[in-house]
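This protein record is not my work; I was only asked to verify it. The record follows directly below this note.
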Amino acid sequence: MSAPRPPARSGPVRVGVLGTASIARRRLLPALAACPDTRLVAVASRALATAEDAAAPYGCRAVEGYEALLARDDIDAVYVPLPAALHAPWVRAALTAGKHVLAEKPLSTDAATTRGLFALARDQGLVLSENVMFVHHARHTAVRRLVEDGAIGEVRAFHAAFTVPRPPDGDIRHSAGLGGGALGDMGVYPLRAALHLLGDGLRVAGAVLTAAPGSEVETSGAALLRTPEGASVHCAFGMGHSYRSLYEVWGERGQIRVEHAFTPPAAHVPVLRVERDGETEDVVLAPDDQVANAVSAFAAAVRAGRSPDEAVTLRQAELLDAVRRTAGRPEIRARQPRQPRQSKESVMSASVQWIPEDTDRELASAARAYDYLLGGSHHFEADRALGDQVLSVLPANIMARQNRDLLGRMVRHLIDAGVRQFVDLGSGLPVMGHVHEIARESGRTCRVVYVDNEPATIAHAGLLLRGVPGTALVGADVRDPEAVLGADATRELIDFTEPVGLLMLGVTQFLHDEDDPWGLTARYRDALAPGSHLALSCFTWDNDPDTMLRTVEMFRASGRTPIVPRTGAEVRRLTGDFTLLDPGLVYAPRWRPDATSGGEQERSNLYAALARKP
């Protein structure tokens, strides 16, 4: 057995790519080309035209056939993004050809094969690494440090989930022959997160795998594990679900929650929500590029001549085997008859019943993108792409959470003040702690009218609100106050001779100066009875004008509705002759922060105000 050896030549590690899978095109090819420690030399495909199309943006060679790429002497290492069932033969061929290997996860379809591949790499003196990118993001190190430092006390439980909407027909994840299935593709994420944070002593205590009708692979599943100290670990995964990407660590004193945990874009601003001893703190970290970090780590491993993640990769493979063995043959999920009418709770419990039949999943919705930024589950790939685009210029996930937390604090204040009816303008999807849910938690009977004009939002919200008492949905443009306030549903539910809570959170930045937002809000204010309140939040230039300018330019360039951030003085004018309640016009996190507001941050790109009609 020989010791691993670094390449004889100096300079960047020369890399070839075996295949043109989506993950390669979207993530790894750009990262390999940009990394100063690697040089992208060639891309291979069985069809030369496909290789040429993938290679052209990077000015590298296109190669017809994987064997031809492995025969090249100007390549030190290869990246393998092929279907899982093809990993082992081509990893083995690459190692035999004397190439270091970075292979997509899972490295193979069983632990015995994984063990054999690492043995071959050691015999050949080569580095073999599995491309689990999320572990290279700095926030997981921060979580591990918090846990090790006792921030939440002794760990009692760990919960993680990674689920995605159903891939289209023909996707390799539906193919048993290509190594598809939810366990190997999605289950890796929560299992690896547990290993990363809790160590390799995990043991499988129970598991279930489920297949959708007609599927030849498992499409969802869950595993229950335990640590040697007795902490429970619950991992859920699946395809054909709403999107979820998160984990929570529960301790004797509190918990840590991480959203957008596994596949965040490079510009995503990570937030660790730490709850301990009855208080909540949002720990905001710097953005980090896990794809670039993974490529750099592989290059460093090649230079050092060792495979640093062999032990954890093998243990992960053993746990995947144990889950499959414990679960046995996947159960076939029974087809459920379509129900003519359902309560909100039953609609939310089914992964697709909130989706209208004529929904265009390829067309992004601002409301669903907002739900994605909040860490919700009512969104599609196009919505996540829109959210990621916004995240590339703005910490929109933080702002979304600030705005939703602000909504909760303001609505609870209004309920305590005796307000029992609300009109929510530009409401988006009524999920994730929206007005009627806050009212229900208060134990008070309230009436809520949600108003939006985006067709997809109206259709989705109509399903979500079906059967929810005391709510109504109005499809109208907020720029037409008479249409909003005069709608039959509004008049049936809201008594304008009594105090009303008029909510305009995150709305006015979409009103342009030619819309006369000050005149519009005056028309709304005039329709309200004394004792009514106007709740506002709005994007502002005042905190970080450079970031807001980039955001404005991004919205304009994308062809979407432009946004108009406003100064504090302009936002104050929206309240007219209403009396501003303490603390006045302030940055959103400073408006009456409480234990759920994630700490008292001094500044934000959102202004907030609550004003009362005398």
